[in-house]
Design brief:
Length: 329
């Protein structure tokens, strides 16, 4: 693959931005208004948003947005289960022998040690994910650019290129709207292991004195068995903005708590579509309805905003017109 070609399998948001491609940014319940600007080179930071806007304040304030369900509400449900089994056998054997001899006597000692270990492991994992895309919130009409933004495009001071200076000052992407819906996922994992170890020690001593011979032999056997099991739960829900993990890294959890969380996330997954529609109705948002910025704030806080729809500023007609047309002052 040529170095300037985009590898979709390894694409990052910064990589997509190099090609000025539209993208959706997964979001959480935090208010961010349509029209906000984003610096793609700051995607890896905690705040990629620009503190200044290129849009005219009055035009942006008076802008309206529309709720659209282009292809109808889309839901997807995925459930998967995997089962693994394993068995290992280990054997260790050691032997030792010593012999002493003189004119009228001879003695010898021989020892043997054997260890057999059998280990059986079982693993069980099941996952469930429910995703419901309701629709989109998009500008009815893109706000106009401010005079300062237009001057930056036409008369760059620092970079010699109006578009490059515009992007450095305001950002190279803007939030064109929201993708609405919800997603719930839960993963259950259970593992068990049983181990059985058998140790055998055999000792034989032989003594010969003149015409007499005496042999002594002793065998000893030990058996040790152990078993262990582990049950873990992790889940998330974007609409309720909750996540849970029973991993020890997140603190101690009891079996009762894990069972309760399993039931709770399973219930959230089963009722996701109903909860999304209920929240939409509670906020008074319906298809093709005109939506103001106050409703956008409520949508963000409710958890309905799954993704921010980001478009490159090069898709703005005013940006390309003022950056390329020589007839504009």
């Amino acid at each position: 693959m040529a170095s300037d070609e985009l590898d979709i399998a390894k694409a990052t948001m910064r990589g997509l931005a190099k090609y000025n491609l539209p993208m959706n940014l997964p979001w959480f319940p935090k208010t961010v208004k349509p029209g906000a600007m984003v610096h793609s080179d700051l995607f890896a930071t905690s705040n990629p948003f620009s503190s200044i806007s290129p849009f005219d304040e009055d035009s942006l304030r008076d802008s309206r947005l529309t709720c659209t369900i282009d292809d109808g509400a889309i839901g997807s449900y995925v459930s998967a289960t995997t089962l693994t089994k394993g068995k290992t056998l280990d054997h260790l054997s050691l032997g030792l022998g010593v012999e002493v001899e003189c004119i009228f006597a001879r003695a010898s000692v021989a020892g043997q040690y054997d260890q057999d270990t059998t280990k059986n492991t079982d693993g069980y994992k099941t996952s469930m994910k429910n995703k419901f895309n309701y629709g989109t919130i998009l500008f009815q009409k893109i706000p106009k650019l401010s005079m300062q933004a237009l001057i930056t495009l036409k008369h760059p001071i620092e970079r010699g290129n109006g578009l490059a200076e515009f992007q450095a000052q305001f950002g190279d992407y803007y939030i064109a709207g929201y993708r609405l819906g919800g997603e719930t996922g839960v993963l259950l994992s259970q593992s068990s292991e049983d181990r059985r170890t058998v140790d055998i020690v055999a000792l034989e001593a032989k003594v010969e004195v003149l015409c007499f011979e005496k042999t002594y032999r002793r065998d000893k056997r030990w058996t040790e068995s152990s078993a262990s099991s582990d049950f873990q739960v992790c889940g998330y829900d974007t609409l309720d903005h909750v996540k849970y993990s029973s991993s020890p890294a997140y603190g101690p959890s009891t079996p009762e708590e894990r069972e309760r969380q399993t039931k709770a996330f399973s219930a959230r997954a089963r009722t996701l579509e109903e909860r999304v529609m209920h929240t939409m109705r509670a906020l008074g948002v319906v298809e093709s309805d005109s939506v103001g910025f106050e409703v956008c704030e409520k949508l963000c806080r409710s958890g309905l905003v799954m993704e921010l729809i980001l478009l490159p500023v090069t898709t703005l007609r005013e940006v390309m017109l003022w950056a390329t047309d020589d007839d504009i002052i």
